[in-house]
Amino acid sequence: MLNVQNPDCLFCRIVRGEIPAKIIYKDEKCVAFYDIDPQAPIHFLVIPKVHISSCGEINGANSLVVSHCFEVITKVTKELGITDFRVVSNCGPQAGQSVPHLHFHVLAGRDMTWPPG
Ligand code: 5GP
Ligand code: ZN
């Protein structure tokens, strides 16, 4: 299951190393890398290596990689010395999803508003 990749997906291509990214952390299940268009002083993405199209496609067969992504968020934020941060996953175009490969934005380093826009 973890080898399932989508040949045309931008983030699958980053996983395969075909597109460069500023990678912060990677292991057998996921990759963390800085967002190319940061929306906060610190803005990185954590993605599963397996192609899951969005938060709307998580199920009993693939959810272990999702919990692992959150373990990585904890690990990377601690390593970066971040205590206050926001985790966002946009699901579908109306919610602002532009890359159809599940990813968790981690934003930090500025005051955040609530509710989000
Ligand atoms: P979404 O809009 O789907 O919630 O988030 C996709 C994110 O991927 C955006 O914040 C966008 O800036 C980022 N992004 C798009 N293309 C690239 C790329 O080639 N490299 C990196 N590092 N980030 C990208
Ligand atoms: Zn993908």
Keywords:
single chain; 117 residues; alpha+beta; 5-stranded antiparallel β-sheet; 5 strands; 21% helix; 21% strand; globular; binds guanosine-5'-monophosphate; binds zinc ion
Structure write-up:
- By secondary structure, the chain is of the alpha+beta class.
- The chain contains two helices and five strands, in the order αβββαββ.
- It has a five-stranded antiparallel β-sheet with strand order 1-2-3-5-4, with helices on one face.
- A hairpin with a 7-residue loop joins β2 and β3.
- It is globular and about 35 Å long.
- The mean pLDDT is 96.
- The structure holds guanosine-5'-monophosphate (5GP) and zinc ion.
- The site of zinc ion (ZN) has 6 residues, from α1.
- The site of guanosine-5'-monophosphate (5GP) has 13 residues, from β2.
Task: Find the structural class using helix and strand composition.
Answer: alpha+beta
Mean pLDDT: 96
* Strand content range: 15-25%
Bound molecules: guanosine-5'-monophosphate, zinc ion
Unreliable segments of 5+ consecutive residues: none
Ends distance: 36 Å
The number of helical segments is 2
Number of strands: 5
Which sequence of strands runs across the widest sheet?
A: 1-2-3-5-4
H/E element sequence: HEEEHEE
Helix % is: 10-25%
Q: Largest sheet, if any?
A: 5 strands, antiparallel
Shape: globular
